[in-house]
Amino acid sequence: MYLDPQDGKAPMFKAAVRLLHNHGESLDPLQVLETLSPEMPLQLASDTILRMFRARIHHHRQGQIVHNLSRAVDIDARLAVLEERSRHVQINDESLCDSCRARLGTKLFAMYPDDTIVCYKCFRRQGESTSVTGRDFKRDILIKPGWLVTR
């Protein structure tokens, strides 16, 4: 409309550049360059088009940062799961269930993230998310320090 007005009027290049300057961040700079009139002096729109390119690159880099931070958090969570699964506990004939105080000996047992050990019967009764101490690990997540989380 500004670049190719009807009724034989002259193109309004400055108005087109002003419109691009105010609303051009959401437009594709390459498409804008293709639609510009060949008669339009490029010096008028060069600052605006450069600003559009910079905004496009800025948004792309912001997306890369968010993506890589998300990957880092995911890797940290996976590492925490691996560390939890590789924990060792030593049970002997004297070891007691922290809930019912029965000897564990050769019984099946479970270990909660807060290092409490219970026999399998108590584990089934209490559920996998609630420890003997009353801590609910589904609601009150136990955060252990990793390379991304420090406490």
Automatic annotation (TrEMBL):
- Secretion signal, residue range per the UniProt entry: none
| InterPro entries (UniProt xref) | Vam6/VPS39/TRAP1, VPS39/TGFA1_Znf
Q: Which GO terms describe its biological process?
A: autophagy; endosomal vesicle fusion
Vacuolar sorting protein 39/Transforming growth factor beta receptor-associated zinc finger domain mapped to chain residues = 86-126
Annotated GO CC locations: cytoplasm; membrane
Entries under PANTHER family matching the protein: CNH DOMAIN CONTAINING, VACUOLAR SORTING PROTEIN 3
Q: What is this protein called?
A: Vacuolar sorting protein 39/Transforming growth factor beta receptor-associated zinc finger domain-containing protein
Natural source organism = Punica granatum (Pomegranate)
